[in-house]
Amino acid sequence: MPVGIITGASKGLGRALAEALAARGWDLVLDARGAGVLKETAEAVAGHGRRVMALPGDVTDGGHRADLVAAARELGGVDLVVNNASALGAEPLVRLDELPLAGLRRALEVNVVAALGLVQEALPLLRESAAGAVVTVSSDAGAEAYETWGGYGASKAALDQLAAVLGVEEPGLRVWAVDPGDMATDLYAAAVPDDGDPRPAPVSVVPAFLRLLDERPASGRYGAPALVEGR
């Protein structure tokens, strides 16, 4: 059975992806910082009859990243890495003239450095897979200039560039940066707590990720809403 690693998997998009992949027969290694919520998620995902290993920890910790890959190796290898864990840099978001530099460093460390570190750790096993793939969860804030989203957007722009170059350097893999679009997540609520407008649930964009895995288009950047609509 295929094996995937998903970071930031206890809630939101990470959990929705884990549920969908397990339902399709994937064995999974799940990461999140909150041990209690991650345990509950892993138990629910395992209800699909698959092997699920939950490893709480911080993706910026190299030892934790090594443990995630080691757990996947125990399950049979690594066919997919989903870099979904994210940090905003400030909660709520603020303009660049107020952005704490420590917060920016944290966003870059989580969203960029740790994402590459996990891929580096998993690359030997990904290369052995018949259908190895890396998914980095992007954002339109990495491509557009939105007030207060500068620090987070800069980290996602950097992540997009890493994904683009990795796709060129690893032609045997598929490397997809996926912009999921607006979603109702804890991350967005923390970013803009005063925004009460309704947003789609993360599960609504999961078909986009499944389509990528099914059709295996060229490495590149994709928008989930367009994939869901069949474009």
Task: Give keywords.
single chain, about 230 residues, seven-stranded parallel sheet, alpha/beta, 8 helices, 7 strands
Write up what this structure looks like:
The chain has 231 residues and is α/β, with parallel strands linked by helices. Helices cover 46% and strands 15% of the residues. The protein has eight helices and seven strands, in the order βαβαβαβαβαβααβα. A seven-stranded parallel β-sheet has the order 3-2-1-4-5-6-7, with helices on both faces. α5 links the parallel β5 and β6. α1 packs parallel to α2. The longest helix has 28 residues. It is globular, with a radius of gyration of 16 Å. The model has no long low-confidence stretch (mean pLDDT 97).
Write the layout of secondary structure elements.
Layout: E1 3-6, H1 12-23, E2 27-32, H2 35-46, E3 52-56, H3 62-75, E4 80-83, H4 101-128, E5 133-137, H5 150-169, E6 174-179, H6 186-191, H7 206-215, E7 220-223, H8 224-228
Parallel strand pairs: 1-2, 1-4, 2-3, 4-5, 5-6, 6-7
Overall body shape? globular
Average pLDDT works out at 97
Helix content: 40-55%
Please tally the β strands and state the result.
7
Count every helix, treating DSSP H or I runs of 4 or more residues as helices: 8
Percent of residues in beta strands: 5-15%
Give the spatial strand order of the biggest sheet. 3-2-1-4-5-6-7
The biggest beta sheet reads:
7 strands, parallel
* Helical/strand content category: alpha/beta
What's the SSE pattern?
Answer: EHEHEHEHEHEHHEH
**Which stretches of 5+ consecutive residues score pLDDT under 50?**
none
Distance between the termini: 30 Å
The gyration radius over C-alpha positions equals 16 Å
